[in-house]
Automatic annotation (TrEMBL):
Binding site for gamma-L-glutamyl-L-cysteine: R89, A90, D91, R92, D418, R422
Described function: Catalyzes the oxidative sulfurization of hercynine (N-alpha,N-alpha,N-alpha-trimethyl-L-histidine) into hercynyl-gamma-L-glutamyl-L-cysteine sulfoxide, a step in the biosynthesis pathway of ergothioneine.
InterPro entries (UniProt xref): CTDL_fold (IPR016187), DinB-like (IPR024775), DinB/YfiT-like (IPR034660), EgtB (IPR017806), EgtB_Actinobacteria (IPR032890), Sulfatase_Mod_Factor_Kinase (IPR051043), SUMF_dom (IPR005532), SUMF_sf (IPR042095)
Pfam families named in the record: DinB_2, FGE-sulfatase
Gene that encodes the chain: egtB
The protein, known as: Hercynine oxygenase
Cofactor: Fe(2+)
Reactions performed catalytically: gamma-L-glutamyl-L-cysteine + hercynine + O2 = gamma-L-glutamyl-hercynylcysteine S-oxide + H2O
Enzyme nomenclature, EC number: 1.14.99.50
UniProt key word Metal-binding: yes
Domain called Sulfatase-modifying factor enzyme-like: residue spans: 176-433
Amino acid sequence: MSIAERGTEALREHVATQLRRARERSVVLTDAVDDDDLVRQHSKLMSPLVWDLAHIGNQEELWLVRDVGGREPVREDIDNLYDAFQHPRADRPALPLLDPAQARGYVREVRDKVFDVLEGSRLEGRRLETDGFAFGMIVQHEQQHDETMLATHQLRRGAPVLHAPAPPAGRPLPVAEVLVPEGPFAMGTSIEAWALDNERPAHDVHVDAFFIDTAPVTNAAYEAFIAAGGYDDPRWWSEVGWAYRVKADLTAPRFWVRDGAGWLRDRFGHVEPIPPDEPVVHVCFHEALAYATWAGRRLPTEAEWEKAARFDPATGRSRRFPWGDEDPGPEHANLGQRHLSPAPVGAYPAGASPLGVHQLVGDVWEWLDSDFHGYPGFEAFPYREYSEVFFGGDYKMLRGGSFGTDPAAVRATFRNWDHPIRRQIFAGFRCARDARAEELA
Ligand code: AVJ
Ligand code: FE
């Protein structure tokens, strides 16, 4: 059910449930390791887990306790420490951070006040409170950091501490690619209550006919690119991509380890054979683009991806999700850290789009050949630092969420972005190609 269709009390209950679910995840991810591990920096790319935890609490305090609730600050003195714009990740371990016990106490104290604020909010009136937007924003913020913390776990060395059942089995798909017809579709949203500013407003975009793969590129397909010498041939790489490939000495996806003539992967501390039918993960944008070029194909644009994910040819309408308007369930998509890996191709037939494109949502974020810009009519809300300060050419877009993304923090309109060199995120890709005139007859 959409947020706006709920009555006020049902919405209040929904907010409370979502807040609790997010906190359960944060607790699992931070209770899984000891205090020494929580304060350590596992990679220069990441914050110590204890920073993420207190930062989650601080954002919640700023928006829900102080702004929505109009209450006195809990810990105004620590705002600066947990402001992501004040301190780059690499510098965070050296800050006088709250220790693990203090951080846990802080987020609990903030959360108690938030439940009180939630009781008193009309969930309408001010834009920030209408449909519980600020609560939804904070739920998504915590879940986004939970995915970031999961990426920190992947970078952490030592014995495995996280456990989850294997994803469902795959099955062969009837076709490898489908035609997305030429024409306009409604991109973005003006009606999804918890959509963030960069997803707004809905606007028509014309998309030429193109073919898109029904599944993300698999480990087996990617290994063929490696075996064919793809990493040694600058023809497949963009100029900046090749320069980075050389400088960083890339030879395979991150977390792949050589095993004789083949490869293994290190997944949250388990060193294991690489499942051939799972989407490849932990490649950067440059690797995705090089693969696509080698394969005689290209990456989709952001508009193409969203049209493939939302366009219903029967009605011409854009759906909330590939499978329809229902919120994601376990049958639709590999989301929410239920499984700690992507699922093999074909594992979610109920999640396919009307055109027959599978696994657009869940499994792996998909790199796209688009930069981050605001849609026509974009308006920063409620703060410029969520999206607007990242607009421009420095980032590439990612869509669809991964096995590490919570359903609350992904939609078919949800936009993610990162530097094109990043590999620690749970990102893969799928390929597309232009349609030839004779294929449209
Ligand atoms: C939208 C995932 C790029 O993690 O940097 C978290 C989300 N913004 N805290 C990020 C975010 C502020 C953001 N991404
Ligand atoms: Fe944040």
